[in-house]
Design a protein that fits this description.
The strands form 3 sheets. The chain has an 8-stranded mixed beta sheet, with helices on both faces. α1 crosses α3 and α5 runs parallel beside α7. With 277 residues, it is an alpha/beta fold. The protein has a single domain, classed as Carbamate kinase, CATH 3.40.1160.10.
């Protein structure tokens, strides 16, 4: 199975947690799965912008990204977080290669337009060229992708002095999963699953179920962007296994494939059976 694993930046800050995740990825690779890793790094970006005394502003959970902040995003995501994760994977015995959208022209970004606010250099995935990722997978490597990329429009690139775009890793995971032909997309998070009002795991959710959870207030706060990202990924990949699952387990990737773990997002409940053989 070809699996895209999305890891949040918060899970990569502590060396012990990062090492555990890398061991889980190593176990999945040893079982014969092809892996693509997409990572965030919001906390790490925040630390450096504050150290540089750059202004901070957010809208709907997205960092409004001016040109200076976009440079920080490239340094932190494409540099510090990406290379540290690659090194940790290598230490766990996983042959990993760190890339961004620019490497091999893997993906470009277009500006994320918002009706109320100019988000600056916040982007969404535009054009994807999967050749580099396909070549890495065929050669046995694990691509580790930082979600920062040059713009698609002519003149919107690093060559013309324009910063790279800052892409929300949760939102980028869906279109990248589709473009790379992945069979599953696992959002490994700090929660065990989506929970109901009694704090019990919800094993399966349809888009209608998610709307009801939001309208009733059962899903709120940090769960809202997680639901949004999972539903976006489902729209992009209706035939793939889409799950929110805990990232702290010693075999987090393999356990996330089990029906008894996490929450599966599906267009219909009968479709779930086809994903969990």
């Amino acid at each position: 199975m070809r699996i895209l694993v999305k890891i949040g930046g918060a899970q990569l800050e502590e060396a012990q947690a990062r090492a555990a995740l890398c061991k889980a990825l190593a176990k999945a690779k040893a079982e014969g799965h092809e892996l693509v890793v997409v990572h965030g790094g919001g906390n790490q970006i925040r630390q450096l912008t504050r150290a540089l005394q750059l202004p901070e502003s957010y809208h709907d959970g997205l960092r409004i990204t001016d040109a200076k902040t976009a440079e920080v995003v490239l340094m932190v995501l494409g540099g510090l977080v990406n290379r540290t994760l690659v090194h940790s994977l290598q230490q766990a015995g996983v042959p990993a290669v760190g890339i961004s959208g620019a490497d091999g022209g893997t993906f470009t970004a277009k500006k994320l337009e918002h009706a109320q606010v100019d988000l600056g250099f916040v982007g969404t995935v535009d054009h994807v060229r999967p050749q580099l990722v396909q070549s890495l997978l065929q050669s046995g490597y694990v691509p580790v992708i930082a979600t920062t990329a040059p713009g698609s429009a002519t003149g919107t690139s690093a060559c013309s002095g324009e910063p790279f775009f800052n892409l929300n890793a949760d939102h980028a995971a869906g279109p990248l999963c589709r473009a790379f032909g992945c069979d599953a997309l696992l959002f490994l998070t700090d929660v065990p699953a989506v929970l109901d009002a009694q704090k019990q795991r919800l094993p399966v959710l349809t888009p209608a179920d998610c709307r009801q959870l939001v309208q009733s207030g059962v899903a709120s706060g940090g769960m809202l962007p997680k639901l949004d990202a999972a539903l976006m990924a489902l729209r992009d990949n209706p035939q793939a296994l889409i799950k929110i699952a805990p990232g702290a387990a010693h075999d987090a990737v393999l356990s996330a494939l089990r029906q008894s773990v996490g929450t599966t997002f599906t267009t219909s409940r009968t479709a779930t059976e086809t994903h969990h053989g």
